[in-house]
Please model this.
Amino acid sequence: MSTEIIDLVYIAAAILFIVGLKFLGSPATARKGNVISSIGMAIAVIATLFTKGLNFELIIGGFVIGGLIGAVVARKVEMTSMPEMVALFNGFGGLASLFVGWSALKATASPEVFFLVTVFLSILIGGLTFTGSLLAYGKLSERISGRPFVYAGQRIVNSGILLAVVVCAVLFIQNPADQNWLYLAVGLSLLLGVMFVLPIGGADMPVVISLLNSFSGIAAAAAGFAIGNILLIVAGSLVGASGIILTNIMCKAMNRSLSNVLFSGFGTVSTSSGPVIEQGEVKPMSADDAYYVLEAASSVVVIPGYGMAVAQAQHVVKELQELLEHNGAEVVYAIHPVAGRMPGHMNVLLAEADVPYDLLLEMDQINPRMETFDVAIIIGANDVVNPAAREVESSPIYGMPVINADQAQTVFVLKRSMASGFAGIDNPLFFKENTRMLFGDAKETLGNLVKAFD
Amino acid sequence: MSTEIIDLVYIAAAILFIVGLKFLGSPATARKGNVISSIGMAIAVIATLFTKGLNFELIIGGFVIGGLIGAVVARKVEMTSMPEMVALFNGFGGLASLFVGWSALKATASPEVFFLVTVFLSILIGGLTFTGSLLAYGKLSERISGRPFVYAGQRIVNSGILLAVVVCAVLFIQNPADQNWLYLAVGLSLLLGVMFVLPIGGADMPVVISLLNSFSGIAAAAAGFAIGNILLIVAGSLVGASGIILTNIMCKAMNRSLSNVLFSGFGTVSTSSGPVIEQGEVKPMSADDAYYVLEAASSVVVIPGYGMAVAQAQHVVKELQELLEHNGAEVVYAIHPVAGRMPGHMNVLLAEADVPYDLLLEMDQINPRMETFDVAIIIGANDVVNPAAREVESSPIYGMPVINADQAQTVFVLKRSMASGFAGIDNPLFFKENTRMLFGDAKETLGNLVKAFD
Amino acid sequence: MDIINLVFVFVLAIFLGVELINKVPSTLHTPLMSGSNAISGITLVGALALAGSDNEIVSILGAVAVGFATINVIGGYMVTDRMLAMFKKKEGGDGK
Amino acid sequence: MDIINLVFVFVLAIFLGVELINKVPSTLHTPLMSGSNAISGITLVGALALAGSDNEIVSILGAVAVGFATINVIGGYMVTDRMLAMFKKKEGGDGK
Ligand SMILES: NC(=O)c1ccc[n+]([C@@H]2O[C@H](COP(=O)([O-])OP(=O)(O)OC[C@H]3O[C@@H](n4cnc5c(N)ncnc54)[C@H](OP(=O)(O)O)[C@@H]3O)[C@@H](O)[C@H]2O)c1
Ligand SMILES: NC(=O)c1ccc[n+]([C@@H]2O[C@H](COP(=O)([O-])OP(=O)(O)OC[C@H]3O[C@@H](n4cnc5c(N)ncnc54)[C@H](OP(=O)(O)O)[C@@H]3O)[C@@H](O)[C@H]2O)c1
Model:
């Protein structure tokens, strides 16, 4: 294939990536968008294979091994483990950029400064992305503790490492023949990835992954500059920009700044901190008694949280929904943007249980009409329904937008104990007049409710 | 200045254009956006002036003459003549592309095919844009009749001209030394611009201008390809794409397809066409009687249309608004997207009269609460409040979204006669039970109302 | 390779233009039209280089292009600014 | 001039990426993240060319890159598709 044709294919691939990303932004077209983007990738790869003089043995080796691993992992992984899977794949993407940069360096006899700078960038950002993503994977999959690891002078140490990397870069570019500086820099960048992610709590990982995703895009773009491949630049920059924006959107949804997420070690406090403002009587209720309330309800809002994921209760929730609907009640779901441990966590789980996504309402849609609901069923959610965010100015989550579950006529809270949620603060909701606690594993409790209906 | 620096300035200019366009998209930031974009233009021009070996005499001549004309015209023009001014400027932009292409051709000794194709495109599109825009200017400023000029076989003739242009292009590219084919093509493209705009009615000109604006962007981009100037490509394509999208948005707002606008000769029918469905008694009212109604009203919606522009009644409308507000009434304006003769026509006029833009509500905001208004004052609007679009299936405007003025408690219609509006169809609104006609020039009628208040 | 880069730029700019303009309220159509019209006067930059040529025909044609493009640029930006200067919000409200 | 073109492409793609992603609902954050992650596996294209080099070190490093990039691409697209396959609308409704 002539280079002109390859170039045209590259343009087509870029267009497919753009259209694919656009489609990915709306629930109705997202799946199509992913397919379109994958077609772009496929034609770009195939066109590249037609470049003259490729060494097919090695390439096929890489394809087969990488493809098999990717496919098997992607098929086997549990729906609940999606976030860590994304982190892992992202890490491999970063590693690939590192190797592309390194390989390009070895391939070039007398490199120019521009080339060296971009190669250096692709190697460093790639390396940092790799270890950072691996650590995020470890924290999310609970192979290592999800606790934020904070120590005094953390920022100083990290800045020191970054400075050392820059020094290495300058020394290396001045004398590219001596590659020890490069190797040192690679080591430092791997270290930097670890140090960067260490102080961040497991529950903030989605933000980190999105940021690392952006980095891996930038690394690809840098590699594109190095080897003069324009498609790498386009695709890499698209991902780089969209990752940053996504990170930003997530932080806004949590009402926190990016630097607060990255540096504050949020989630370190594991026990109650502030003074508990509104205490009162906790009113437990049995599933059988709850059944009578539900039976009489004509509108029910379900508010799921991290506990639903832990209990794997999404399928039985759907069962309950159908029973309630059959009984003549309207059932909707209220999804907080940061419910669970990754953005869209609840949506993915409920989608797995075949809940139609037009029943899932966002916070802004549901809050104005919360009073009209007879029952709010809170399934393993805690922080995202905490009225302290509205009422208690001293609360660490004060100002965070929450779902105003307490304004429903009756509130059922399904959780195992009086323990606090991710933010580690007390929840005055549990003590309100109209709240009933249904203690126990969410899946079991819901199962009992379903049985009561049959 | 070295070319690297010029290139960097070009990148900065491109970014300023992008940011400027983005800001232009929201009322609160639009003016800033225009300034940002003009700064981008300024730095690009200044950087270019530093290119070595420029002939400053001629350049300064061009600057001074062009700048003077542009500045004087821009300052002098009446607010009501904005659309034709835009058309005229756009035409000059097209002409500039034509000359750039032509000049680049003369500057190149042995041109390649790619160069020839792009030069040809910039000359042709530039020429077509020029005459098309001039004709649009003529129609809008009523120097020539705004009537659509339709004849049988129009499309065939136009396709013929287009085909002839393509033939010229092929012949010219095969033998670029013989420039007669080029000159013939230029003549044909000038002709094409005229033939293209002739069949389109004066009131559809905004759509045409937006389309021609898009063309002038494409012509600039083509010139950029020809002379290898990347900034021309970026800016030209941005304008090209945004023009097309804007055209599309306008057509949607009128509930018509682009081809209907371009080819149908809409507005040819000047007298009543379909059978008048709902006749009845027309109830005229004097300004003095109307005053008593307004005096008692606690909420008033003003619906302006083309007649307000004709009567230049925007200032007296604002006076009336203030009097009504002083009297304790709520006053808002309901703006139909195609009221007047250009998109945003009413907004510009009312802004001139210092009406705050948050009082101007769009159709979708106002229709649901139309019933809550005591009085709707229709000032020289006709088609945009025609209930036939909702009720009469045989009407040519059936399906067009309109402002449901007839649903207000009382409707005042200010116009000079029972004549129809731009679409040339009867308006059943005038015969409704709750409608009162205030015949006469809108400015005079409003003046009488204002006097009654004093 | 050079041409292909230009084509990439063209494609990206087209998509970007579409994204930028989509969903603009009709209030702003006219100023937006004239503002983007002014940007299309960027041909001025191309014209400048040609107007400076040694070849007399080239430079005269270029200078003519400079003249027309300048009308477009200066006139376009000024007219747009005049229009937008009149868009005012009720005092005290914040931007929307 | 060549580098400057690449920089132009870079700038335009950044702006385009920002425009494309702004205002995506939080429902889609996770699949969007993994879908764009798969796109960043485009390094595969760069890796392929290097893996085909005559120089042994270059080609081995390139092949390793091919392997990792392939994991990212294949795994990323498949995982995203699995997630999105589960997003269903109530039957009978139209797209929103
Ligand atoms: N979604 C994101 O992207 C994201 C990202 C970063 C941070 N975060 C943070 O994560 C938090 C999410 O809030 P959330 O309300 O969803 O969760 P949460 O506040 O962490 O509360 C989860 C609750 O579920 C209960 N639970 C756990 N296992 C259960 C089981 N098997 N059955 C029943 N209940 C169970 C726990 O109480 P028991 O132990 O008493 O059962 C716990 O109180 C927010 O603070 C948010 O800022 C989210
Ligand atoms: N805005 C755009 O961008 C655009 C573009 C293309 C087409 N159009 C078309 O233009 C039409 C706009 O609708 P419209 O309701 O604004 O206007 P219209 O339907 O054209 O009606 C204007 C009315 O104003 C009256 N009028 C004229 N001069 C007057 C004066 N001095 N004092 C009082 N009344 C006066 C006329 O009646 P008298 O003669 O009896 O006074 C006429 O009925 C639509 O059909 C639309 O599709 C608009």
In short: Chains B and A do not touch (no CB pair under 8 Å).
